[in-house]
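One example given next:
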Amino acid sequence: MNDWLTIRRGNAPLLVSLPHTGTEIPAELQGGLVSLWLARRDADWWIDRLYGFAEELDATIVRTAISRTVIDVNRDPSGVSLYPGQATTELCPTTSFDGEPLYEPGREPDAAEIARRKALYHEPYHAALKAELARLRALHPRIVLYDCHSIRSVIPRLFDGELPQFNIGTNSGASCDPALQAAIEAVTAASGLSSISNGRFKGGFITRFFGDPASGVHAVQMELACRGYMEEPEDVAPDAWPTAFAPDRAAPMIEILRAVIAACFAFAKPVR
């Protein structure tokens, strides 16, 4: 069993994927990095705590503790960009979201090292998703794969201006039934907070690869702007980021996310 991979098996028609909450960087990889703080800065901070209620709903939860700097399990393993022509980060990122080098010159992972990391981390994560989806699909005629993410609200290299607070990605409608997307949009619209579907973030590799509505697997990515649940300082520096998880500040967001997940349940198991 991989100690970095957590699988919480439930029987509800919902799989919650947490691919970017990890911050662990194996000791043998730390020496070539510019700094451990920079290597961990772009994690999806506190997302596992925001969705902590999923366990009580008997959802299946798959999470990696490994930092996305080691390898990004939400990227195409072939290395093909998910957003051709737009700035993004690679399968094994060599730059931060802001474009700063993550490695000292000449210490970036080569092809052999990338292949090693794929075998160690990327493949087991996806094998876990595949196995759990198959298990749940055997129990239910349709299931929802909900991929959880967050990102700083302002990153000029990646997008213009301030990101909406809710960014729903369904691969431009291909990864789930339109009714599921509409149900989630209704919740985010009622929240009074800004939202968009298939804008800058249309869903990563997990959403695009596993979403197969015709086979009963409906995949959605939710990218939250961090300001919706945590303080975002103007200067994202080592002494100011990440800010501590604040339950009182996060509580309203958690209630909205509960409603989003309730919409997923209602779609997967409609009242007859």
Q: What stands out?
A: Residues 8 and 143 are 16 Å apart (CA to CA). The first strand starts at residue 5 and ends at 8. Residues 5-268 form a domain with the Aminopeptidase fold (CATH 3.40.630.40). The first helix runs from residue 27 to 30.
